[in-house]
Amino acid sequence: MNTSLRPRLRERMQRWMLRGRTPERLPVVLGQRRIYVLPTGPGMSFGALLLAMLVASLNYNLALGFALTFTLAGIGHLSMVRAHRNLLGLTLEAARIEPTFAGETRRAVLIFGERANRMRPALSIQSIDGPAEAFSIPPRTSSNSTIDLPAKPRGWHGIGRLRLETRYPLGFVVAWSYFEPDLGGFVYPAPEAGPPPLPSSGSNGEGRPAPGPDGSVFDSLRPYREGDAPRRIAWRQLARGGPLATKHFESEAGGERWLRWSDCPTSLTTEARLARLCAWALMADRSGETWGVELPGHRIEPGRGATHLRETLEALALFQHPR
């Protein structure tokens, strides 16, 4: 078959099997109307052998030949039923996609549950165009399975269609089902390789006010946070009926560091700027200092730690690409 035709035929078959379903909310239970069964290559050979044995038994009127042929046919039929039952009632209970950087293989963790009190051996799960992961589920338990997903550009991407199949017990038939959970994950911008050093704490960027003689300069107002010093509260704004806010200062001597869009050269493309900000964010997180990020139309107040870094990377991933 033409190699360019095969993917299109496979895509059409998958759409027909999903029958226009939108991504499903978890848990996803496999019912009998969404499980398909077809013979494998060995199964086709086994069927041809049975046909030859049947013809020979008819020609030579061999009673033992008939008995052997129909016994093997019964075994083949039982193999088909067992393969179908191996998938029937399986439940995808939970799943998550690990965040990653653009260009890297994504990984998804899937948790399948078995509540019919029977062993589910020889299962395999895979994404479309991804490698298969084999696993089994003991009765009345759950099993974790990790699969690789194709790399994607930065943004928020769904998990896509998944294929769960089994060839248990004899490999004569394959039973499978497609499903698409309503689940997605972040792909962060790929950090720039060999980025320049972090901008200084009082970096002007473009058009920023210069620090004063004491090394600090008023930068902006931010919402009040518990623990802010009273001397930094914008009392005048509060007296005029404005919201409670805190003055934010920059300092040459340590203090909060800002990673600004305007700190990147204007000659860089949007993706190159995001890559540099991503690299700077990782460097600032490793340094342990307090840092914030300014993007066009979006500002992340200074902070530190894993939660702050994740918030920043998610903002970079969704820049001009909202979910």
Which features does this protein show?
about 325 residues, alpha+beta, five-stranded antiparallel β-sheet, four-stranded antiparallel β-sheet, 17 strands, elongated
Oligomer: single chain
Number of helices: 6
Q: Structural class of the secondary elements?
A: alpha+beta
Report helical residue fraction: 25-40%
| N-to-C span | 39 Å
Q: How many strand units?
A: 17
Shape: elongated
Describe, in short, the structure shown.
With 323 residues, this protein is an alpha+beta fold. The protein has helices at 5-18, 41-60, 63-87, 235-239, 270-287, 306-318; strands spanning 28-29, 36-39, 91-98, 100-101, 106-113, 120-127, 133-137, 142-149, 155-158, 162-166, 173-179, 184-188, 216-223, 245-251, 257-260, 291-295, 298-303. Strand 10 (162-166) and strand 11 form a beta hairpin.
Write up this protein.
This protein is an alpha+beta fold and 323 residues long. It has a domain at 15-173. It has helices spanning 5-18, 41-60, 63-87, 235-239, 270-287, 306-318, and strands at residues 28-29, 36-39, 91-98, 100-101, 106-113, 120-127, 133-137, 142-149, 155-158, 162-166, 173-179, 184-188, 216-223, 245-251, 257-260, 291-295, 298-303. It has a 5-stranded antiparallel beta sheet. Strand 15, helix 5 (270-287) and strand 16 (291-295) form a beta-alpha-beta unit. Helix 5 (270-287) packs antiparallel against helix 6 (306-318).
